[in-house]
UniProtKB/TrEMBL annotation:
GO terms for molecular function: ADP-dependent NAD(P)H-hydrate dehydratase activity; ATP binding; kinase activity; metal ion binding; NAD(P)HX epimerase activity. SUPFAM superfamilies: Ribokinase-like, YjeF N-terminal domain-like. (6S)-NADPHX binds at residues 57-61, 128-134, 139, 157, 260, 324, 376, 441. It comes from Rufibacter radiotolerans. The gene is nnrD. One of its GO terms (biological process) is metabolite repair. This is Bifunctional NAD(P)H-hydrate repair enzyme.
Length: 504
């Protein structure tokens, strides 16, 4: 699913109005209808609604929703905020259509305004995608008032005060929503940490924007949906054998960090890879053979850290490097030799492999094309430099992928996959329980296992990241988020594969 900018959303609106054709106010009616349908499904009529409307079409949506909820027997109260300024024509029309019985207050100030029922629902229709500057005056006051209330806060389209596709200044007023109902497409701001924190849970409500426009509009930003991940997943063939599913090599582990490569090995095996070999320093031999009997072990000449890669790399279809590797100079040299030599098998690089890469610009220049890198934000910063804000970070990600012809998985609440063409995909699976040691090592194992089975680098990232998060969600359902540990992720990976394969 594409993510559109605010300008593209306006164009989609205009195109739909002209081509369907439909009047602007009827399109608003359709949007409000979708909104109310969702609200009525989730909140019973004993919940009072407090609807805050600004001067534009977001406020117009709020007014139309007020009318529709009232018609269906809901108790509704409307607050008009800053609407003595210029209001939009569709706002005006919906204000006229508002039944007399609905209480309407014009808020000039929130001083002295009593709190709403904590059992009620506040609809935030102050500003939507038309926001052009930070909120001030009565708008900022209204935001502070909403944020003080104990009622459930549902934002219409986007929490007021957030820009759909641009950063906000720190400390500027933004509605803290429990739920955001976004029309047709989610906004880029939902996926980024500084702005996404205001959004709460979000849902997309289709409002019938013209499919022709949505198909032809070009956007670098995409949502990684279940449908997309499902379309990538290849079934296993009846007459296949272990040779059909590739041979992966994982290289990592050092004294005190054998757990990392062990986790990655389990995960790689759970992706269905045909064969797995793991190269570890000698200290790790017994640990690996005991912890992961399905894997074959190779040992380095050294006892505590890695100093070389195996000679005959051609027999592997993917090489995953990094979990527990450490940053010893010998390991750096081994990596440099690997990069400067014959083209190695497809690479997945994580953890200390990334740190070694970050510390040495010359090896970075020799990064084989089509490699997959999986940094967390700190590793990302070491590799790509500091970002001034979340949107800048996306730009750095795109630049890095294009400069090095590689694929980067920037890990986070919505992990973001960048491709050399500049396309970015935001993941939708996963939960905060996964913010715990070792979950990244599991991802490395998953990606290494999938890549070895012949998935393209992009498909590997999309499928692997989606499954990793889904395994986390299934694990959290059973174990709870706080108690989730990295090994749960590969334990639930099978269930994740099954769930992904299910047709709804
Ligand atoms: N295609 C769709 O998704 C549809 C969306 N709808 C809704 O329309 C809004 C966008 O409406 P718009 O009138 O363009 O913008 P706003 O309501 O967000 O803003 C109104 C108006 O206010 C001015 N303004 C901007 N920033 C400020 C500020 N900081 N302080 C004061 N005034 C400000 C500016 O002039 C804006 O034009 C979208 O989010 C949906 O909710 C349609 O209902 C259906 C189709
Ligand atoms: K809003």
């Amino acid at each position: 699913m594409k993510i559109l900018t605010a300008a593209q959303t306006r164009d989609a609106d205009a195109y739909t109005i002209a081509q369907e054709p439909i009047s602007s106010v009827n399109l608003m009616e359709r949007a409000a209808g979708a909104l109310v349908k969702w609200l009525e499904k989730h909140y019973s009529p004993d919940k009072p609604f407090y609807i805050f409307c600004g001067p534009g079409n977001n406020g117009g949506d709020g007014l139309a929703a007020a009318r529709l909820l009232h018609q269906d027997g809901y108790d509704v109260e409307v607050f008009l905020v800053g609407t003595n300024q210029k209001t939009s024509p569709d706002f005006d029309q919906n204000l006229q259509r508002l039944p007399q019985e609905i209480t309407v207050s014009h808020l000039e100030t929130t001083v002295g305004v009593s709190d709403v029922s904590p059992l009620g629902v506040i609809l935030d229709g102050l500003f939507g995608s038309g926001l052009s500057r930070p909120l001030e005056g009565i708008y900022a006051e209204a935001v502070a008032y909403i944020n003080r209330q104990d009622a459930t806060v549902v934002a219409i389209d986007i929490p007021s005060g957030l820009f759909a596709d641009a950063p906000i200044q720190e400390g500027s007023p933004v509605v803290e929503a429990d739920m955001t109902l976004s029309f047709e497409q989610p906004k880029l701001a939902f996926f980024l940490p500084a702005s996404g924190a205001f959004v709460g849970e979000w849902h997309v409500l289709p409002i019938g924007l013209h499919s022709e426009f949505l198909e032809q509009v070009s956007s670098p930003y995409h949502v990684l949906t279940k449908e997309k991940a499902q379309s990538i997943l290849k079934p296993r063939a009846k007459f296949s054998h272990k040779g059909s599913y590739g041979h992966a090599l994982l290289v990592g582990g050092s004294y005190g960090k054998m757990g990392a490569v062990t986790l990655a090995a389990h995960a790689a095996l759970r992706t269905g890879v045909g064969l797995l070999t793991v190269q570890v320093p000698q200290t790790g031999y017994g640990i690996l053979q005991t912890a992961v009997p399905e894997a074959m072990a190779l040992t380095d000449d050294l006892d505590r850290h890695l100093s070389r890669f195996p000679e005959d790399l051609d027999r592997f279809q993917c090489l995953g490097i990094g979990p527990g590797l450490g940053q010893h100079e010998d390991s750096r040299l081994a990596l440099e030799t690997l990069f400067r030599g014959q083209l190695p098998p497809p690479l997945v690089l994580d953890a200390d492999a990334l740190n070694l890469l970050a510390a040495d610009r010359t090896i970075r220049q020799h990064l084989p094309p089509d490699s997959i890198l999986t940094p967390h934000p700190k590793e990302f910063e070491r590799l790509m430099g500091p970002a001034t804000h979340d949107f800048h970070r996306l730009q750095l990600l795109q630049d890095f992928c294009s400069e090095h012809s590689c694929y980067v998985v920037l890990k986070g609440a919505h992990s973001c996959i960048g491709s050399p063409e500049g396309t970015l995909y935001f993941n939708t699976t996963g939960n905060p329980g996964m913010a715990t040691g070792g979950t990244g090592d599991v991802l490395t194992g998953i990606l290494t296992g999938l890549r070895a089975q012949g998935y393209s680098p992009l498909d590997t990232c999309l499928l692997g990241v989606y499954l990793h998060g889904l395994a986390g969600d299934l694990a959290a359902e059973q174990e709870g988020q706080a108690s989730l540990i990295a090994s749960d992720l590969y334990t639930y990976l099978g269930a994740a594969f099954k769930k992904l394969a299910e047709k709804e």
